[in-house]
Design goal:
Elements: H1 5-12, H2 22-27, E1 34-40, E2 46-52, H3 54-63, E3 67-70, E4 75-78, E5 87-94, E6 101-107, E7 129-131, E8 137-139
């Protein structure tokens, strides 16, 4: 985890602060991207939602390791290159309109998310909180 208080509140807080401007921000970048849902092949748990461009898709298909386009850094992002938490692609699917992709994967490291739980372990996926009817976030 980072020491930045705003990131800690965002990633570890219990208040919902959804970023509804994200897609508008992505639409403003020069790179053409599609959303990619990453799902565990065995458990079917949704692990992460990211973006790919043609380069990231081609690299993913060539190497068999999930590779994305970082919309915040404007660069290729090979999942696990720095953390060791790579995702082996078992199958790649496209939707009916060919405007989104699903990677069915097998996680190869200690977790998937860049955040860690209270014991210091990488989380198995990025969807580790749910919104309660009160609007407060609850860890699951």
């Amino acid at each position: 985890m980072t020491n930045k208080p705003e990131v800690n509140l965002l990633e570890e807080g219990t208040q919902e602060t959804l970023d509804f401007s994200k897609l508008r921000q992505i639409a403003g970048i020069e790179e053409e991207v599609l959303p990619v849902v990453v799902q565990d092949s065995t458990t079917k748990e949704v692990l992460i939602v990211a973006y790919i461009n043609r380069l990231a898709l081609d690299e993913s298909l060539k190497t068999g390791i999930a590779t994305f386009w970082s919309t915040s850094r404007n660069e290729l992002w090979v999942k696990g290159a720095t953390s060791g938490n790579a995702l082996r692609i078992d199958e790649t699917r496209i939707n009916c309109e060919q405007n989104s992709v699903v990677f069915l994967v097998t996680p190869l490291g200690a977790g998937v998310c860049h955040t860690k739980d209270s014991d210091g372990n990488f989380r198995t996926g990025c969807y580790y909180r749910r919104i309660k009817p009160s609007g407060e976030l609850e860890f699951i």
